[in-house]
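My convention is simple: the sequence line spells out the residues, with the fold written below as integer tokens. I include a record here:
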Amino acid sequence: MSDRIRAVKGTRVLLPDEAERWAEVEAVARRVFGSYGFGEIRTPILEHTELFVRGVGESTDIVGKEMYSFTDRKGRQLSLRPEGTAPVVRALVEAGIGSWPLPQRFYYVGPYFRYEKPQKGRYRQFHQIGAEIVGDEGPLTDAELITMLMRFLGELGHADLEVLINTVGDVESRAAFRAALTAYLEPRREALSADSRRRLKTNPLRILDSKAERDAEVLDGAPRLEEHLSAASRAHFEAVVAALEAQGVAVSRRDSLVRGLDYYTRTVFEIVSAELGAQDSLVGGGRYDDLVAELGGPQIPAIGFAIGQDRLIETLPDDSPLGRDSGVDAMVVPIGEGSGTEALRLAEELRSAGLRILLDSPERGVGKSLKHADRCGIEWVILLGEDEIARREATLKELTGGEQVTVPRSELAGRLASAVDAASGVKERS
């Protein structure tokens, strides 16, 4: 017997019960984002490596250590997409967004790939839900995007949410701060962690986000980005915070929040939940006003976010309104070999009425069918034998209470729908 072929490390399979929960989360995203005027965009999984070198930044961990890249048969350097924003911007530039009415709003859902150590909530093939607003530089846009995220997370059942927010300034502000920070850290480089010593040459702002205790000690007394902000960047940030606070959103300013990608400008943010302990971040994002131009388009401002869908679903609260049923309303059980065709017809009638129906095999036998339905968490079973077929009836059986009643076929769909809705607390079936 040959050895089993296992899944590639860092990937996983979503079986139907888990996939159903994923679909529910995505449905909430589509509904909430759609109510804010966002439309879905789908980009290729495969892109030219240069897109991420230019867009994300050659000095970032993503490009430097984590991308799945290869040379194809014609010598082209290609990569599996490691993040969503650069592919969206590339696609919009190629489609000619400079001639479109602006702003435009997009959301996306899909798989991404990074070579990093797999751990709980983090995979090499991971999934993101993201959104971008392209063509509006106003602070109200930043506030609206964050407010939409708070609504989305709230509808999934998350509470005690807080927005951590900062500004990394415009290009001039960031350049001035980078020079001051580098000048402060260079004489202290040996006291830094290994990662921070490497970042001192490539991306010193990332050192501010270090969790290493020794780095925190070195950074005590370091220059602050706020001291190097231009007047325009400062005014933009203050307006974003004021707009969020006016909506009752809990906001906390964090000087150390810089995010990990080179394209960010001005507003950067994370949303955290006190329910999650030390690993409390649910989503992050920010403004990237120069990325469209960097990738060959006109100078168009933009802002966006990305949610790690794997971790989002793994951290859904116990009282989340999602995934509370088996996904099946009832099972039709044919009794006797001659009942199969009519049982199929009955199952189709009930499905046409909006019910979710599983059709069992007549070869299983009634007793085994009832046990199978119980193991699957199905509450209602419809028994259909020769007598019921002759009388144009069916027997509706509730497995939990054991009650069963004979119902005319013409009334079965309505009777079953009422029973299912009553059990789930739904007053009226849409």
Summary: DSSP finds 15 helices and 16 strands in the chain. Residues 16-35 form the longest helix (20 residues).
